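If your schedule permits, I should be very grateful for your opinion on a structural question. Please examine both parts with care and let me know of anything in them that strikes you as inconsistent. The record follows directly beneath this note:
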Amino acid sequence: MIGTVLIGLFLLALVAGMPLATGLGVASVAVLAMAGFDQLAVPTNIYAGIAKYPLLAIPMFILAGMIFERSGVAVRLVRFVTAMVGEWTGSLAVVAVLVSMLLGGISGSGPADAAAVAAVMLPSMIARGYPKGFSAGLIAASGSTAIIIPPSVAFIVYSVMVPAATVPALFAAGLFPGMIAALCLLVPAIIISRKHGFGRDYKAERPPLGKSFIDAIWGLLAPVIILGGLRTGVFTPTEAAVVAVAYGIFVGMVIYRSISLKGLFRILVDAGELSAVVLMIIGIASVFAWAGNTLGIFDVAAKALVGLHSSEWMMLLSINLLLLVAGMFLDAISIFLILLPLLVPIAVAMGWDLVWFGVMMTINLAIGQFTPPMAISLMITSRIAGIGMEETFRWVIWLVLAMGAGLTLMIVFPQLALWLPGKLGYL
């Protein structure tokens, strides 16, 4: 009864148009009152939810992503990748995917990655005959790989909620699946571009490879410094986020001189506002999770779901469908906070590796970021392209299927995710 009220009130709040954090808070407070709990449990659990050392990395990575976005790193990476790929039918589609993958190794956020690449790539792609719908859909899809490729904000949240999966293990586990997801997107991107002749009639001078590499070297070094420092133990994942910020400020203000003191202040304000929203959702979702766990709601639901499916593959299919649908409407961090208390007991009961499970969940949520109707990355790129999201549908479906194929590979062959962290001694 209480479980039904908790979930029912939350869904009703979302349907009524309440912000996510408000809906979680209303449902949690109402259920705790019904169960006779002291309402001091609410502020106590909000504080406990955000007062965790690994979560300090989230505002830092958000800030680092914004600094690199506005310092001109994306423009230089585009020139360098274009110099490598060359000019041919569909070449800009390949450039968009590869640049998104490189930036994903810096920002850790799909929407931020998509916004940065769209601002640079969309004008060029449209000028060379690529439809706005195709360009916006491809950039949104390739940008979503940022939450799979380390460093990933989503992995940090997952590790906080699932202590058995450490951040270094998750970062290592996400590397190959993230690259496979990006490579899967290249297949429909090239096939569609060649079929329709996108960029065929446009001839442009290929940027010089040497000069482009020198211009882009500071951006290319960022993921090397972040991941190299983590691997060698020079700094922790939280400290890596601070290093990324310091490095980004140095590149933007000293090397490229594209960020002024006034510009840096504006970046700090924007990053602070976005971080506050994310941490508020995490704090209130912690109350929601605590209420569900304390009242035994999630354990009962998990046992019921395990009882429904005797087959491991049917359970996997059910969970993946649930995540794909949820990803169409909510962002990755919110879904982790809402669904992990329910899904982790199922994963444990099934004997699944929790690091592998985290990567599987994250790939699902990456797909949701560009799957209509409420795809956040697709909303951003469509807005930058000046089109309605419906113009992307005919193209996006092929990208969803392509990344779904990459997800299937990772599920069927778990070692794609587990080999590297095992080799590095994180498992």
